[in-house]
Write a structure and sequence with these properties.
- α1 (28-39) packs across α3 (59-71), α2 crosses α3 (59-71) and α6 (159-167) packs across α8.
- The protein has helices spanning 28-39, 48-55, 59-71, 87-98, 101-117, 159-167, 170-177, 193-206, 248-268, and strands at 46-47, 75-77, 82-85, 120-127, 130-137, 152-154, 209-212, 219-227, 233-242.
- The chain is built from nine helices and nine strands.
Length: 288
């Protein structure tokens, strides 16, 4: 099976959007979590109206939760009636990340990938059906990709998500994808079951997945899964760049490098990873 980038238009594909007709009834804690999640999105500080729009809650409800969060240090007022994450929230996030063995191991690996490829390198974990980005190492460049620590993407619509899905047991992966409509953030995102199965099979065979403008227009990424001592998927490492810098040929060169980086972290976590074999012919004869 060929590794690297494959044009999805060569496979069956249907573009859908997530339905909102069957939203669950939200309790106070659900609403507070949604406000908190919106509060830490990039582009802050955020105005009350923007937070209400992003959460779908009324302004009085959002304001009530923000007032409580401010009292506990999870939010703090900013200029113009806007809000930003508070010191207690930032402290908790920093403490959690610094106490993570995986993050400790991943930081130098991401720095190495960034140095060798010239592309932004990142680490993400899974929460339900989403990939959540936790750590990033970014080169000094004039442009920036949209992913940042805290960014969330559907598993089926980003490189790190596809990498994690490809390493999950088939039944678990199928359960995550067995929903009425899968969200498509771009027209290129795979949402058809047959197309997704082909993408995941290729990723499992090659040891890395390729996101061809699935999460963000004009951005391509390559990612590989990280597993622990029990062989369970704990996250994924990836790189991304603009499509003209990370072209199809580059994905075949960098894919094995990303795969090797993920296996390095997996080995440090106690996983028994397979021996690193030769890169296919399209990978220019380098070894991973």
């Amino acid at each position: 099976m060929e590794c690297g980038w494959v044009k999805l238009s060569d496979m069956v594909k249907a573009v859908n959007t997530r339905s909102v007709d069957q939203e669950l009834v939200k309790g106070p804690v659900d609403k507070a979590m949604e406000v908190l999640e919106a509060l830490v999105l990039p582009g802050g500080p955020h105005r009350l109206g923007d937070l209400a729009r992003r959460t779908g809650l009324t302004k009085p409800t959002v304001h009530r939760h923000l007032r409580t969060m401010t009292e506990y240090g999870f939010a703090e007022p900013a200029e113009g009636g806007s809000y930003r994450p508070g010191p207690r929230l930032l402290g908790l996030a920093a403490a959690a990340l610094n106490d993570s063995r995986a993050i400790e191991l991943i930081r130098p690996v991401l720095a190495g990938l960034r140095s060798r490829t010239g592309h932004v390198a990142f680490y993400a974990v899974r929460h339900a059906g989403d990939a959540v980005y936790l750590e990033q190492s970014e080169p000094a460049r004039e442009y920036r990709v949209g992913t940042r620590p805290g960014h969330r993407s559907p598993l089926h619509a980003c490189g790190v998500g596809l990498a994690m899905l490809s390493a999950l047991p088939a039944e678990e992966a199928a359960a995550l994808l067995d929903v009425p409509e899968l969200e498509a953030r771009t027209p290129q995102a795979p949402t058809d079951p047959a197309a997704l199965r082909a993408v995941l099979a290729r990723a499992a065979s090659c040891g890395y997945a390729v996101d061809d403008e699935y999460d963000e227009p004009d951005v391509r990424s390559v990612a590989a899964p990280v597993v622990d001592a029990r062989g369970q998927v704990v996250g994924a490492i990836g790189i991304s760049g603009l499509t003209f810098t990370l072209d199809p040929e580059s994905t075949r060169v960098y894919g094995p490098m990303v795969r090797a980086a993920a296996r390095t972290v997996s080995t440090e976590l106690g996983a028994r990873t397979p021996a690193l074999g030769p890169v296919p012919a399209e990978g220019r004869g380098k070894r991973s």
